[in-house]
Amino acid sequence: MINYIIRRLLHMIPTLILISMVSFAVIQAPPGDMLTSRLAELAEQGELGSESAMAQIDALRERYGLNDPIYVQYVRWIWKIISKGDFGQSFTYEMDVMELLVERLGLTLTLTLSTLIFTWIIAIPIGIYSATRQYSIGDYGFTFLGFIGLATPNFLLALVIMFIQVSVFEAESVGGLLSPEYIGAAWSWAKVVDLLKHIWVPILVIGTGSTAGVIRIMRGNLLDILGQQHIQTGRAKGLKEGKVIVKYGVRIAINPLVSRLGLELPGLLSGAVVTGIVLGLPTAGPIFLTALTSQDMYLAGAFLLLSATFLLVGNLLADILLAWLDPRIRYE
Amino acid sequence: MSSAVQTPPDASVEETTTTATYSQRELIWRRFKKHRAGVAGGCVVLFLYVCVFLGEFLAPHDPAHRYYNYVHLPAQRVHIFSEDGIHWPFVYGIKKAFDRQTGIKTYTEDAAVRYPVYPFARGAEYTFYGLFRTDIHLLGTGKGNPMFLLGTDRFGRDMLSRIIVGGRVSLTIGLLAVFISLTLGSALGVISGYYGGHVDNLIQRVIELIFAFPSIPILMALSAILPPEWPSHLVFMGIVTVLALVGWGGLAREIRGKTLSIREADFVLAARVAGAKDRRVIFRHLLPSMFSHIIVIATLAIPGFILGESTLSFLGLGIKPPMTSWGLLLSDAMNIHSLSLYPWLLLPGVCIIIAVLAFNFLGDGLRDAADPYSSR
Amino acid sequence: MTQPLLDIRDLKTYFYTDDGIVRAVDGVSLSIVPQKTLGVVGESGCGKSITAFSTMRLIPSPPGKIENGQILFRKNPDSDPIDLTQLNPKGAQMRGIRGNDIAMIFQEPMTSLSPVHTVGNQIGEAIRLHQNADKTEARERAIDALNKVRLPRPDRQVDAYPHELSGGMRQRAMIAMALSCNPNLLIADEPTTALDVTVQSQILDLMRQLQSDIGMAIMLITHDLGVVASMADYVAVMYLGKIVEYSDTRTIFKNPRHPYTKGLLNSIPQVGHKRRLVPIEGAIPDPFEIPQGCAFAPRCPHATRQCRETPQLLEIESGHHVSCWLEKRET
Ligand SMILES: Nc1ncnc2c1ncn2[C@@H]1O[C@H](COP(=O)(O)OP(=O)(O)OP(=O)(O)O)[C@@H](O)[C@H]1O
Ligand code: SF4
Ligand SMILES: [Mg+2]
After folding, report:
1. Which of B155, B193, B233, C48 could form a disulfide with B256 if both were Cys (CB 3.0 to 4.6 A apart)?
2. What CA–CA distance (Å, rounded) separates C243 from C157?
3. Mean pLDDT across C176-198
């Protein structure tokens, strides 16, 4: 097991290097560099062309190493990240990228993971229900809802829910994670309740698509497994039907879900980004969008790099979990 | 392997495979026709493409024209009855009222004015695919007269017309993106599966790299790189490229899997043992026999591209005006205030759902027909 | 005469499928005497497994249903019989019988154990369920049971997962599980078909020995007449959902009366005889289109006009039942 984990960790290193290169490429891709916008500012003030301004720009170029070849810049960038956790500066927010991202990224990941848990809690029982009552009305109903859920983009679902909140329930504050009066307030019981009142919306929005997917897979797997011989063995022992289904059916049908976690997480993270933007959540989504539209590339690149790293780690954990759950693939 | 020893000469191998694929296709088609959801999906897809192809002809108005008198007009109803009996289908004129205190505009039907709705009515002029100029529309009440069956947006532009024209962009992007990524994906997937070894490793590594990023953020980042000064149609091509660039990996993986399973099939082995060149084996044997699977994979991939484009456009990183798309139309609904007052702004979303559902059903039907024993 | 342990009377189990009704078991009667072995033979698809599953009340429903008949089972020799067909298949009483009084082992040792639970867990489960044992006791007894089936190093294998065992070892583990609660009746559905020949005979030896140790009856389902000859006290020959001949093993082999039985016997190479193999002509009919009258008629060399009506299962001599018009004609 330890060997397996170490091997997987080693395998991650080249992928991480490639990921960082792609992120850096994204940072470098827009024409010009971080001083181009400064130049534009100067131009507006009519100072462009003045000796002192140009000298200032050149000095800055020199200082930030912008005249160096691209690979030197890459190595400098990545070295700062590794050694000091310094992802550079965001010029729109005039802040350290890391400082800006840390809390929001944390919230994004929390949201992603809570959605994952929520998805499973909802989807697995429904999958079991659908599989054990195949072709019942309930089964058809869930299948139909599942199709709709898979066909609705996150942003649209967010809009629809906001619309329903406003027009049907006449809610006053929609979107966000807290009502205005609690933002910045100290944590209290009331604030927690308020948070719970808000957080179900993003969870529902992010989770619907993958819930539908998980139900589908769970249903299919469980149907497969319930047709297998060892289920009859369990019944022939005299076990209760429910126990047979849970112990010998569900327990095995879960494994492919775990192995799919690696595919599920990126979708959830994508959903969290979009939903954060539409609902105006204090997550990384909105500032990522701002960063892209204002060409604040160090911020954007840092987000890409960090989220890809998170997905890699998530994948690794999922694989370890799977190896732990399924004795057949242990130590392979 | 034993079957490969009794290999017939190359020519006859070819003959058997072509007849085999032919009857195979016939079989698939017959199975597909029995799949009701699949056929329904196929019909809807066809209907949608016919609609967006007819575009300006179906659209009652010039989608870009701003009717400043009818800003945020709710959907008008088509009537047959009025107080004085039965008529040719018509819409009422519009009376506008403005509440000074709340600042809310309200529209009411003006029973005094009736605009009959005629087929092949004259309206705004347009050029049909650069072929001829005309001002005939499928339905209309005459140029400049109101008939806004799905309401108008914040500039008083006709929603129905914009949805039809926007649909053209959304649905074409799906097709183009799938075409490009399929070309790329088939080529690399087949090479990867057929040759294996280092090439395979390299390609798989690249795909892994693409999958390492969450899809929407990387799409957003790549589209944000497109030069802001690009005109609308270049941005369109740019978005197609971005979608294909991120999307080919999944297709290549699936095609690689199929190639692996088919590479060892008797007729492919036979052709190889008979000394056929790799290129010949790939193009004459592998690809034709995978054709149905490739179609299935492509059909099931289209919804992803449609959703991707709509998300990008919605976020303002995709299609750029004056072009429009369903996603871009929906960005008008982003403001919760206008959303609650003008809920018809959500209608393009309904179109997205219908299109995606239709493609999914069609794809499921095709898959079940092509591969009746695979349980996804 | 001893009371039968299991007495199946005119059992009919049908499957209602989209394509029609499959009469998988269509009027089967047989009985099993305590501590004896009944061999059930017949070609693939003739309803052997469905008879066994009906007895265990494990027919998947829908589409399957027991349409008719009684399955009388005696928990001990002097008690009144229980009609298993009247029990709720998921109810407590039936579950109390399954695994405890009647145990079953299956054809496919590769798939009949759960891949993600240890062997000990799966054996101990039955013991805990039926014998009120706690976890440690169940484990001890699981090791005991593995010891009895002569699995090497049972104290270690108890923690093994099925994929770590060979086919023969898995079937031993299955037998250990089945016998862990000392059942009165063991239903073995082709227990050795999937195993290679040497392992096969080891498993059969083992079953024979355990039978005499525990004193249980066995219903041994197989299409291998060689296995029947070496194991069974009685034999029931099935064809398309019906029993066509039923007698003690000696009689069946020495004096087979039904043309189908004769055909089956001819189709196995006999040790010491250099006779040619004579396979039974023709193929089994489609289960949806079972012919009227004697189902064997299309393949029977002796078929006559009379065979268009269904022959009854008659006792032609003490304990020897045959369903064939030939018998009537001769007497
Ligand atoms: N779930 C089911 N649905 C429909 N028909 C079934 C089902 N299970 C069994 N049958 C049918 O019942 C008949 C008897 O099957 P059964 O499994 O008892 O055969 P068998 O004698 O055990 O054969 P084998 O030697 O191959 O195990 C077959 O024709 C089979 O097609
Ligand atoms: S009843 Fe007739 S057909 Fe059937 S086995 Fe006897 S002779 Fe043959
Ligand atoms: Mg069987």
Report:
1. B193
2. 41
3. 85
